[in-house]
């Protein structure tokens, strides 16, 4: 995405050209609609046709942005916006059920095509009225055919304002976009359109294409319902196996694994070492490479799941955040906010804590330097 605050000279030139073309398109299209120089019904007053065009643009922008927002929403974990944007959370959860996404896409596509064709009916310009009178400004015949009657000029208004702009906003702010009250009714309208059966043959055609091209789902995606279920089941299997592990002593933790991993004598790390070793055994015995790929994709988009597992960096193992938080609770101390669950509103990302500590350390070093200089001059 182009950052307007970091745009270069070429970007600004294109901004200006695009703005001029869009302004010209809006003026020409609006003039043609108001003066009834389009293919729309002559019995409809020009101002009414212009109002219909504006409504059509708004509806088109909603359905275009809604699709992108639902797709981009999968990149974010639901718990991260569950409390702050409840409407977006509920809509995202509803769309993720069963084949609702496919049904929405079918109803949405029908709606988009109808709205686009209606906009085309409203904006197909006829510059010549057969009486020798010119358009808003003198237009050569080749220009009438190439730019006006083909719909190119009006196309700029529809594409930029009603399609691209909502899509870009929805891609950058999917949660905020879905929070608008109009999104939920629009979603269910698209579902209702699909329920009429107008596009039901698509299921048969899709199945036929899969058969002809020999397509098959080797590995369900992590964001799909199947992939989500597979990953969840495997994580539950890991959790159940880890819960059965007893805490081992420091002496039993050392020995054969001493050369592989360096762990402290703290009972938290000792327990984590045992859990980690058991987890590796479970993975080797029960998980196929395909399942591991599904699990990896799932964990990449659900970082909060990592809080229950230890971390290994090089030849050193560190306890899981949840294990440390449990230890704080057990000892009667408040849990630091960076160890809280990621879905907790009180949670602060660890890198924020690290940045703050670095800043404090820098300030401390500066104060030490100033004190040293004062002592030298004393």
Automatic annotation (TrEMBL):
GO BP annotation list: silicic acid import across plasma membrane
Coiled coil segments of this chain: none
Annotated transmembrane regions: 12-34, 46-71, 110-127, 147-165, 186-209
Matching Pfam families: Silic_transp
Keywords: Membrane, Transmembrane, Transmembrane helix
InterPro entries (UniProt xref): Silicon_transpt
Protein name: Uncharacterized protein
Species the sequence originates in: Paralvinella palmiformis
